[in-house]
Design brief:
The protein has about 190 residues and is of the alpha+beta class. The protein has helices spanning about 5-15, 20-30, 85-90, 110-120, 125-150, 150-160, 165, 170-180, 180-190, and strands spanning about 30-35, 40, 50-55, 60-65, 70-75, 80, 95-100, 105-110. About 30% of the residues are buried.
Length: about 190
Amino acid sequence: MNNPHSAILEYVGKKIALSENDREILISSFHFVKKDKNDLILRKGSKTEYLYFIINGYMRCFHQKEGGEEVTTQIWGPGDFATSFESFLKSNLSPDYIQCISNCELLCITKNDHENLYSAIEGWPLFCQNVYETYILRMSERMHILQNLSASERYMRLLNKQPNIALNTSVKHLASYLGIQPQSLSRIRKSIK
């Protein structure tokens, strides 16, 4: 990738006006990192110091039930911000794990650098409000879907709204995210081919 920062500059630039100085500040604040498939970037019970912007790849947020079963609560792909927002914003211990489910190219920003952007870039508070509102709306929509749609409807909705996530996530993680058994998801997939 020639300029890993171009993705975030484009993303932020669609939401708020950026001066050349603002662009330079963003470039110096976000650091490029590569992570391998299955890397855990956050463990339950630890504090996160980073907010990640996904350039390429997929990540998931999950928790473990008492018996060890993993429940995927979020799947993020290119153009998404990923972190334990509760831990990042409030300095709380994370209730979840975050894992790369493919090789990932990421931009990360520390909590301190993120907070400094509030005074360094005029539109940053508005941009962050937009990111957090989007996250809250996604969580609300997810709860509605899990409570009101059948397993087939949940999968078809994901396939229509977020096909890249549906096609680039393992059956095990996707089934957990959709709240169904992997065998049921396999049957649903076969029935629509």
